[in-house]
Each structure stands twice: as structure tokens, then as C-alpha cells.
Amino acid sequence: MAATQRPRTWASTYYVKFRIFAGRILYDQPEYNGWHYGSRVVRIGPRSLLKRTSIVEAETMALVSRLTSLPIPRLRHIWVDRSVQQDGRKMCWVIMEYMPGRTWDQAWPDLSSNERDKIQEQMRNYISQLRGIRPDGSPDGYVGPVGNHHCWDYKLDTSQAYGPFPSLQSFYDHLLSTAEKLNEPVASNIHRDLLNAAHSHSPSSQTIFTHSDLAPRNILIHNGEISAILDWEQSGWWPYWWEHSKSLFAIGSVTEEVRKLWSSFVSETSPVYNAEFDLDIGIYEIVGLQL
Asked: What range(s) does the Aminoglycoside phosphotransferase domain occupy (predicted)?
């Protein structure tokens, strides 16, 4: 990995607690629409941020930094936690570079037409680079994160570990399992339609590397360009349509104006899969989750 990694000790635990305490006193803390991240994300220096996250995010950031030109915070130190979450995630503390900028929804309304065009071109290029990352040592159709860890996506069940999956079909079997118990006829049709749509893609392009949480809060803009793309914990190789669906699903609590602007931005910067998105909505209508 690009950053120094060592097991957590009591000494480093106390160090982390001290940095959190001092950082809260000395620096303005990150927030989004008035919501603070608590002790999970703390600014601890002029250019340093401390974050509690999964080892998947740290490994993903190291991989993407090595293989692409995306603006990602540089990792400086990692302390690995010996405990494992119920959902299978291995946790760690990371000190990373603090990135300047305003979130997309804060900055976009104030940008000129030329600046918007430039940022859209940047994002198209970044997404294209991500989609070109192939899983090392895994078969075509692999669904899962870097390092063959368990999958984690808040749109799915986060109460237990699942995956990774050796093929797109095995992932679809998991994705539709609950829906088919609740409404077998409709869910089976969705299952069939998703598989049929996938067959129009080559095996190597059925799953592609995906950020999986591209949302206004995770894109920073500074001096008229993208200065950082944040939050890589859910990233990995997912179905080819997953980025489009998650970008619309993960938008969060924003105004209707921002929602429309963001939907247009997504359509301009990444491949659009409306049929698969409609099927995705159908799944969550069955299981009772609202997009």
C-alpha cells in the first residue's frame, strides 16, 4: 500500500484520541448542510484529516491513486483495528490529506458556463479512468471490493457480511433473494430482465470499477475545477449500471433545484442505463425501501 500500515496498539489509540480532542479545539470541523461528522471525521491540522473507516476505503484509495489521475486525498498513516464489524468490515483509522473546496451542490450554482463545461469534462474523464480498472486475479464478472473483502453498500443489507461474488449472476441471485420471497412473480421478471440486459455486454464489461457513492457531498470544487473526490468505502467492481443508479439514489437531502441540476450532471458525465435503473427501483419498491 502507498501508506504506512501497522497494527493498532494502546499507544496509538491514545494518540488518536488526543488528536481528535486537540483538532476539535484548534480547527473548524467538516460539515455538510449543518450536519457534523462527530469523531468519525476530524480535521487535525491545516492539511490533515483523521477518519474512522474500513480498510477497504484505504486500500481502494491507494489503488485508484496509483492507477489514475483522480484527485484523491493522499494517505499518510493507517492504524488497523483488530476488531471486525458485524457486517464483515475491518476497520481502521487513517490520517489523510485535507482537501480544499466546496461541495458540488454548494459550488455549482455559482459557476460560469465555461467552468461547468470544464468540470463535466473532468468528471467524464475520471469515470472513464475508473471503468478501466480491472480486478487483479479475479474472473470476469467479479462483484466485490479491492482485496476480495466482503461487499458493503448501504443500499443493500448492512447488518451482515456478504460476498464477494465470482460472477454477475451470483450477485443478482443475492440482490433479488429477498424480493423474490416477498413477490416472486415480479421479482423473477426483474431478475430475468437484468440478466438479459447483461448479455448485451461482453463478460469483461458486465462489471466495472465503480465509486458507488458519487453524490454532491463527495465532490469538492475549488478554483473552477474538481479538487477532490471523497468517500471510497463502497467502491469496487459492481454491475455496469451501478454507478448511474447509485448516483441518483445517493443524492441525499437536497433541494429540488439541486436534484434537477445533479440529475443533468449525472446524465452528462457518465453512461446512462435508464432501463436498469427502472428495474432497480422495482426491486426496492418490493422490499419497501424508497429511492
From this structure: 35-243
User: For the segment 114-151, what is each residue's pLDDT rounded down to a tens digit?
Assistant: 999 999 999 999 999 999 999 988 888 999 999 999 99
> What is the residue extent of each domain of the chain?
4-98, 103-287
Q: Look at residue 87 in the predicted model and tell me its pLDDT.
A: 83
- Domain 103-287, CATH class in plain words: alpha beta
- pLDDT score at 253: 79
With helix as H, strand as E and coil as C, how does the chain read?
Answer: CCCEEEECCHHHHHHHHHHHHHHHHHCCCCEECCEECHHHEEEEECCEEEEEEEHHHHHHHHHHHHHCCCCCCCEEEEEEEEEECCCCCEEEEEEEECCCCEEHHHHHHHCCHHHHHHHHHHHHHHHHHHHCCCCCCCCCCCEECHHHCCCCCCCCCCCCCCCCECCHHHHHHHHHHHHHHHCHHHHHHHHHHHHHHHCCCCHHHCEEEECCCCCHHHEEEECCEEEEECCCCCCEEEECCHHHHHHHHCCCCCCHHHHHHHHHHHHHHCCCCHHHHHHHHHHHHHHCCCC
Q: Which CATH number fits domain 4-98: 1.20.1070, 3.40.50, 3.30.200, 1.20.58?
A: 3.30.200
What is the value of pTM for the model shown? 0.91
Please tell me the predicted confidence (pLDDT) of residue 6: 52
- Section 263-278 average pLDDT: 96
